[in-house]
Amino acid sequence: MLELPDGLGQAKHQAVRDALVTLIRELPAGAGMPTERELSERFGVSRGTVRQALDRLEAEQRVHRHQGRGTFVAKPKMDHLLELTSHSEHIRSRGMEPASRLIGVGRVPAGPDIAGMLALAEGDEILQIERVRLADGEPVAVEVLYLDARRFDDVAALLGESQSLYQLLRARYGVELAWAEETIEAVVAPEREAALLGIASGGPVLLLCRQSFDPIGRPIEFVRSLYRADRFRFRTRLQPPAPTAARLPPQTRLRLATAADTPGLARVFVAAWRAGYPGIVDQTVLDALDEEEVADWLRTLTSSNGPTTWLVESVDGDILAFSRHGEDPLDSRRGHIYSLYVAPGMSGHGIGKALIDHDLQLLSERGLSTVTLWVFEQNHAAQNLYASFGFVPDGARRVEPEYGAQEIRLRRAPAPAGSPGSV
Fold first, then answer.
1. From residue 309, how far is each of 54, 94, 259, 326 by CA, in Å?
2. N or C: which end of the chain has fewer CB within 10 A?
C-alpha cells in the first residue's frame, strides 16, 4: 500500500504526485494506473486532490489519460544530446532502429530565407526533402531538409530508410560537417504534421532548426524538424564562456554573406572608408568610391570559392559590418584576414571584435592558427584593435597603387600549447 511522506509541509496533491512518480517508475510503459477512487482510498484524500496530482503528471507527460478507458503510464522520454550528429546516428546510439518514411522530394527555387541559410542567390534551385523519422517503427519527428540542388543533385535517391545523411555526405561527397547552429522552440503541431506523428492536432511539439557548416565555413544543409514533445527531451552540458570571447550586441546576428548582400556590403564599405580614412588615403580616392562598382567587385568575391565573407546584421536585416578571411595568398599554411569594415556609428559596440574572434576561430579549426593581415600604417585605431588579439607588426610593408598609402603587415602566432589564450 502506498503511503504519503510525512512532515514535508507540502500540499496534499503535491505529495500524491510525488508518490505516484515512484509508482510509475516501477511500472512498464502502457501499464494502467489505479482509478481515481482507488487512489483516493489508498492515500486518504479526496478525489479532487487525486485529480490535481494526475493533472500534474499528465502535464509532465508521465501519464496519458483516455476518457472512459483510464490513465496509463507514458513511454519514457528519450534524451537527445545537443551535438552534431544525425537523427539516425543518435537513434542507433540509444539501441533503437532508425528508419525514415519519405513524404516528398522536390526541386524548388530558394526563397530569401533558405537562400540565405545555404549561401545561395534567391531563386537558385534547391532540394526540398520531407521525411517522417522513425525509432523502432514509431514516428517521432517530421523533417524538412534543404540542400543545394547543384551540389547534391542525386542525394535524394541515395537516402535509404535507415541511411544517415551525414554518413552519406562523407562517403559520397567527401563533405565533413564541422559545426552547426541550432535553435529549439516549443510550438503547436499543425494538423498535417500531427497526423503524420500520430498525435493530436494542436498538441505540443519541439521545432528544431539546424544550419550546418563544413570546416571552411560553407553552409551544407538547413533542416527544420518537428519532434514529439512527449517522446524527446534535449540535453546539453553548459560551461561558462571563455573570458576573452567577444560577443555581438543584442538584436544582431552573424551569418555568411551571399551575392544578394553585396549592395548592403558596398554601403558599409564606402561609408567606412569615407569616415575612417581621411588623411590616410588621398581624398580623391575617397570621393571616387562608387557603391555600384564596389557592389560588383564584392559580388565577384562572395561568389568565388576562395575567402569567405561573414556579416553582422540587425534583426531588421540592415548590414552593420562584414569581414573576409581565408588562406594567406603568400603561404597556404597561414590564415589571412582580408578585410574588416564596421558601419560608422556602430563602432564601440563590440561588432568588430566579434567578427575577428569568429574569423580566428574558423581559421583555427582549419589548422591555420598563424594569421596575417594588412593595415594602413596611420590607422592606429585598427592597429590597437588587432593588438588586443595578439597581432604585431612582422616587418613587411607595401603601398597599393590604387590607394597610395603605406600599409604594414601584422601577424598573430599561435600561443604555446597549454598557455593562457592558446588556440
1. 55, 39, 10, 9
2. N
